[in-house]
Design a protein that fits this description.
globular, 3-stranded antiparallel β-sheet, YbaK protein, about 250 residues
Amino acid sequence: MPGREQEPGSVAADLLVLLERRLDAVRALRIAAFADELGRACIEAPGVFGDPLVHLAEGGLRPCFPFFGRNHVGKHNGHAPHGVSFTTLRSVDQWPEAVERVAAVLRAAAIDARLEEFSEGTPTAEAAARAVGATRAEIVKSLVFVCDDRPVLALVPGDKRADAVRLSAAAGARHARVAKADEVLAATGFEPGAVAPFPVPNVSRVLMDRSLLRHELVWIGAGSDRHMAGIGPTDLVRLAKAEIADLTEA
């Protein structure tokens, strides 16, 4: 994943100082201190690319958390290194509705994450791994099972197969089967092949395979077969309210 080349907060901060020095030397000292805080706190002023910079100090600030870096068609070369990119919150409004549901959870949690769009799609774990430049073990498959008539979401690595016996035991059920397409939609709100780990309003439990915790970053489906999000596995556990278990075939 591309790293951030420079912090937008510090760019705005430097320009603030330059502009203010021309207007008022005393105010420039105050703005300089303010600018230093901007750089340290990684704060981005709203409208930094369109509003008069001299007014940003008086306006309002919002945190430039490393939420989502959106790569459009042609930007992805299939070898994205792991990292975090930055964007303002207003661009998130452009996501498709199902993807926006995932984005809203990430945004509210204010965690390091990256939401990506891939023009060629990521219908399989292999295709997803190739698209993001990761191994299949770092891809999270979100599989819906029906365990004793209750929908359960299983999060397993892309290089492993879910074990129905282990899954049913972890869910405290006598039997587990793969959910049908209409059951997947009813349980998660996402179409089959585009299931994200959250939000899944009608799933009774979320189980996550223990092996996913070994990685620094994992990639989840994000509401469509063309969108994925990179997220730390511990953050995934928290946001999905997942229980850790051994879910894959030995």
